[in-house]
Amino acid sequence: MNVIIYCRVSTDKKVQETSLARQKEELLQLANRYQFNVIKCIEERASGYEVERDGVFDMLESFENGQAEALLIQDETRLGRGNTKIALFHQLTKLNVQIFSSIHDGELELSESDSMVLAIVGIVEEYQRKIHNLKIKRGMKKAIANGYKPAHNLTNQHLSPGRERKEVPIEEIIRLRNNNLTFSEIAKTLNGLGYEVSKATIHRRYQEYQIIDSD
């Protein structure tokens, strides 16, 4: 498994240099015990309450690009403190990143209170997404009632001259996909707007778009 080591101290004081070195050594030993492949070691000197950290953005970008699957930290406070810690844990959870700590000598064990807050954040985010989808649905129905014809916006009808292609609003699929909706959720949203389209069709059209966009 490819992993990233993240070490942090709060100040530039000389005594903190020892802490950074100790964190790194402990996490390298942890990686060795679990036979992890360390692809990057990030060391930062910044407050844990500060979210705007170069190392944090570097770490998140690496996970988003699929360069690593797990994060190694000394303990949860090294990643962040207060709301910043919760926000980063939530983001890492969404990216399916496993977190290991040297304190636990294995997977990080969140406190009961932190776990509860993360669960609440996840529920709130899910309802925000549902509300967003309902607003799209209501807006589209209103537009159609006022004479808007979604089929006129289709730009890829020429791709299959054989069997008649279903009317699919590719722009809407792209926008919903960019809002982190799954293909199944996009299918349900479009079905609610009157499009009889399956998850497989949406996935296929999205792949076609990616191929065209990359040319």
Strand order of the largest sheet: 2-1-3-4-5
Overall shape: it is elongated
Query: Which range best describes the helical content: under 10%, 10-25%, 25-40%, 40-55%, 55-70% or over 70%?
Result: 40-55%
Mean of the pLDDT scores? 83
Low-pLDDT runs of 5+ residues are: none
The number of distinct β-strands equals 5
Largest sheet: 5 strands, mixed
Tally of contiguous helical segments: 8
The proportion of strand residues reads 5-15%
Q: Roughly how many Å is the radius of gyration? A: 23 Å
Descriptive overview:
By secondary structure, this protein is of the alpha/beta class. It is built from eight helices and five strands. It has a five-stranded mixed β-sheet, with helices on both faces. A hairpin with a 4-residue loop joins strand 4 and strand 5. Helix 7 packs across helix 8. The radius of gyration is 23 Å and the shape is elongated.
Report a brief summary of the structure.
The protein has helices at residues 14-33, 54-64, 76-79, 82-94, 112-145, 170-178, 183-192, 199-214; strands at residues 2-9, 37-45, 70-73, 98-101, 106-107. By secondary structure, it is an alpha/beta fold. It is elongated.
Write the layout of secondary structure elements.
Blueprint: E1 2-9, H1 14-33, E2 37-45, H2 54-64, E3 70-73, H3 76-79, H4 82-94, E4 98-101, E5 106-107, H5 112-145, H6 170-178, H7 183-192, H8 199-214
Parallel strand pairs: 1-2, 1-3, 3-4
Antiparallel strand pairs: 4-5
